[in-house]
Amino acid sequence: MTSSDLNWDAIVIGGGHNGLVAAATLAESGRKVLLLEAGKEVGGAARTEEFAPGFRVSAVAHLLNRLHPDVVKTLELERHGLKVERGDFVPSVALSKNGPLTLHGAYGEVLTGASSAEQSAWKELRAQLLRYAGVLKPFQSRRPPDLGNMSLAEMTGLGQTALALKRLGKEDMRDFLRVLLMNVYDLLDEQLSDDRLKGLLAFDATLGSHLGPRSPTSLLGLYYRLAGEIGGLAGAQVQPKGGMGAVVAAIRAAAEKAGVSIRHASPVARVIVETGRAIGVVTQSGEALRAKTVVSAVNPATTILDLVGPREVDTGFVRKVRNIRMKGDAAKLHLALDRPPQFTGVDTAGHKGRLVIAPSPDHVERAFNPSKYGEFSPEPVMEITLPSLADPSLAPSGACVLSAVVQYAPYALKEGWTSGKPKFLKAIMGELETYAPGIGATVRHAELLTPADIEDRYRMPGGHWHHGELQADQMLMSRPVSGWSGYDTPLEGLFLAGAGSHPGGGISGAPGLNAARRIIAMRA
Amino acid sequence: MIRHVEINSARSAAQSHFRTLRLGTPFQPRIDALGLKQDWYSWAGYRAPHSLWDEELEYFAIRSQAALFDISPMTKYRIEGPDAEAYLDRVTLRDVTKLKPGRVHYTAWCDDEGFVLDDGTLFRLSPTRFRLCSQERHLPWLLDSAIGYEVSVEEETEAVAGLALQGPTSFAILRDAGFVGVERLKVFDLAEFEHDGATVTISRTGFTGDLGYELFVPADKALSLWDRLMAAGELRGIRAIGYTALNRARLEAGLIVANADFTTSEHAIRTDRLRMPDEIGLGFMIDPDKGHFNGRRAILEARARKKLRHVLVGLEIEGNIPAEHAIVYYRKSQEVGLVSAAMWSPMAKRNIALASLKRPYGDTIVDDLWVEIYAMRELQYQKLMKRAKVVPRPFIKLDRRTANPPADF
Q: Which of B124, B138, B131, B108 is nearest to B44 (CA)?
């Protein structure tokens, strides 16, 4: 083991987007920061990668819909090349054999393809969903309330939430509390009648979690989606030019400008602990690096069980960390196509948007059912983007990239993914063929990443992009585990800053920013 | 429906404790024969005697002769493996790296919040093999604590029978029973001896503050060990005893009992009943300089922030009426605590008690403390307000407990 003479103020483990945000924010506060990335490049699951000769795609996350405005502002990301304008918003298209239905603008400011009655029902429901999601929104950029010892600032923050609730008015407040833990299926039934619209919302509510639309609390997923904003508008979504890697490049530029030293191909073997305090890390190559603060932006279970080790923390804490549920249920499909596919009935603008195959809430529920028993969906649901339509640099001339998040694909597939993967790909292609006839014949290369592949490639245990199921019992003060939700850990000097911490996954940068703010506030 | 019945019968077969409400220990045939008073209680699910024939004489057997007490119901864990030392050092409070093979120490263990889960004795049988004895059961906790260690944890409560042989003639009895070399055992030493084709582990330990030993033997050799000791002790006054007598001896020795003098953290329902080691007189076990151990962060933080709310003290109370479960007052008016165990001590010739007080009482304020004793006298309570003095524990100190070589009474 060699030892570096340099003493860092902070070492950030993991160069995913949250690690970069945390590192950049800490560096801007005047700290000397070293970021250690295991892979050859930073970005984690937000990289843009080549998956076939000449074809590039956003690795796991392919839509930007929740990059936190505080992150954009704090890191001046616009100056570093990230610009989102209203014209960049893309629609969501609910595909159906009865013709598509489209949500335009920021999550359906305008709805087309539905009856006028459905349009006005949607207008009301959309406003209500955004109002209610708005109550939860401020939580994203704060530490979860620490019920044991709340500071004045935290108390005030919670008071503001109570005030926001009160501002909803008596009826709305009651309704907010009534529906909060409801399942999305029943709520949609109360207010909508068009299966295509309901299917789309049911899909969005359950995207990235092991829930079906009828599972209790599934509505929370939709709130989480709508608590996100981009370009100042809640619910909006964009396909970043250059893929998600371009967003990472902007954050990276901000980090480098703030003085962060970034080292690639430097996986961390362990965190050095001395009498209850994290004092540095040892890389897998055996180099010991010391720092006042160690910030782990990798998975919380990896951090505690592998890097720190169970011996340095208490048994009860180990129990809690081992019990974090994080078996991914979503797969990622990348297709290299000879030419752009034609989805039946969808216009040019629609093809540049998000195409969702979830024709009804029942369809989503049926897709979910087998996953409870370790089987993939025979008729999977998915969201599809064709990023090369807006950014031709992603594919060879005339060819096309298709990127899709597909559910449900249980991490622990009973028959194993070796034999299950080709079968699942066939099921997905069957669905695609239904909505874009002839697409199968144009496939030059197909890459299907099951949760097991995502786990291996992106160091996400369980292949779960939230690094822990985002359900009521693993949210807020219970994320990543109850009692330790405020980014600190039982080890002095060790902080968590990844998606496994509050508020959760998606390209938001919020966990990284909140963690950095916590460290700065603690003068750690 | 048929399937339903099958499941139930399979279950009940695995749950014999529903049919035998109080299990017998391996010594039960001998104890039953001596249990003239039929005064049983349940010790961790086993049928154990409060008293066999006469409480007073059983107590004096401890102090003047030799008393044989069945400790088989005590929960016992066999902990073995290359990481056993490191594992136990993390689970328990005291520094296990300082516990040499062939030695025993009294220790305790805590949850994450630093609250005491239990106390017990840790026997180091070899560099890699230990026995942990405790009041309560802890297998899930011990197994989850083993994550990350190369160690096996097995409960051996049923497989291993235990006897405490306590009192001035205990050494002589062991020697006469033929345990050659037992004279070399110093306090907290242990050694293995041959018995009936098997091995008995004898340690110079006990719960009485007296000269005494504890013996652990495979369950199927329990009766022959009992008989061997009884035969050897016949002329040295050996007597089987029940818990009441032992409980008096342990109080004189100033030793605490889990869930009698403090509530263990897994049993406590009310949050203010939880206790940190410093709050029950076990602060001496904490070594902040050893490696990490469960509860370390919380315990050190409580110390630093002065969050310790209680203190366990020994009291000497005027008069001779035992102050069992009496309320402790400051200036005869302000409630500051409760007595958890009390007796007139025939050895100390003092009225003694253990009490838990709310700090600063018993900690920095030790004067003007009183206990209110309700003495029932022919269907009428006589209320006595008696002055209580905080005194060091143990209440008695017997040279014979530690004398080397042990005295031949």
A: B138
Q: Cβ-count burial of B327 within 10 angstroms (0-12 exposed, 13-18 middle, 19+ buried)?
A: middle
Q: Please, which pLDDT band fits residue A358 given cuts at 50, 70 and 90?
A: very high
Confidence label for A155 from pLDDT (cuts 50, 70 and 90) = confident
Chains A, B: CB pairs < 8 Å: 48
Kindly report the average pLDDT of chain A as a whole number.
95
Contact at CB, B112 and A317, closer than 8 angstroms = yes
Q: Which residues of A touch B289 (CB under 8 A)?
A: 275
AA identity, residue B46: Y
C-alpha to C-alpha distance for A307 and A304, rounded to whole angstroms: 6
Interface of A with B (CB under 8 A): 273, 275-276, 305, 309-319, 322, 490
Q: What is the pTM of this model?
A: 0.94
The minimum CA-CA distance between A306 and chain B, rounded to whole Å, is 9
The pLDDT of residue A401:
98
> Are the CB atoms for A321 and A461 separated by under 8 Å?
no
Distance of residue A417 Cα from the nearest chain B Cα, in angstroms: 28
Domain B75-155 top-level CATH class: alpha beta
Which amino acid, residue A215? S
Q: How distant, in Å, are the alpha carbons of B30, B162, B163 from that of B24?
A: 11, 13, 14
Angle between helices A184-191 and A361-368 (to 10 degrees): 170
Location of structure tokens 């315990």: B299
Q: At what angle do helices A184-191 and A195-206 cross, to 10 degrees?
A: 150
Alpha-carbon distance B314 to B341, whole Å?
Answer: 10
Helix, strand and coil in chain B, % to nearest 5: 25, 35, 40
Average confidence (pLDDT) over A182-198: 97
Q: Whole-angstrom Cα distance, residue A337 to residue A128?
A: 40
Q: Which two tokens stand for residue B33?
A: 């024969």
**pLDDT single digits (tens) B222-246:** 999 999 999 999 999 999 999 999 9
pLDDT number for residue B9:
66
The closest CB to that of B296, out of A276, A309, A322, belongs to A276
Tokens 């939880």 correspond to what residue? B274
Q: Which residues of chain B have pLDDT under 70?
A: 1-18
Q: What is the CATH number of domain B271-391?
A: 2.40.30.110
In the predicted model, is pLDDT for residue A297 greater than 70?
yes
CB atoms within 10 A of CB A287: 17
Fold (CATH) for B21-74+158-252: Gyrase A; domain 2 (3.30.1360)
How high is the pLDDT of residue A169?
Answer: 87
Burial degree of A163 (CB within 10 A; 0-12, 13-18, 19+) = exposed
Helix, strand or coil, per DSSP, at residue A449: strand
Within 13 A of B214's CA, how many CA atoms are on the CB side?
A: 25
| Distance set, CA A10 to CA A32, A52, A295, A524 (Å) | 6, 38, 7, 9
A315:B145 CB<8 A: yes
Domain ranges of chain B: 21-74+158-252, 75-155, 271-391
**pLDDT in the model for residue B333:** 96
Q: Give the sign of the dihedral formed by CA A363, CA A366, CA A368, CA A370.
A: negative
Question: B73: closest CA among B189, B13, B195, B160?
Answer: B160
Residue from B308, B307, B277, B309 nearest B93 by CA: B277
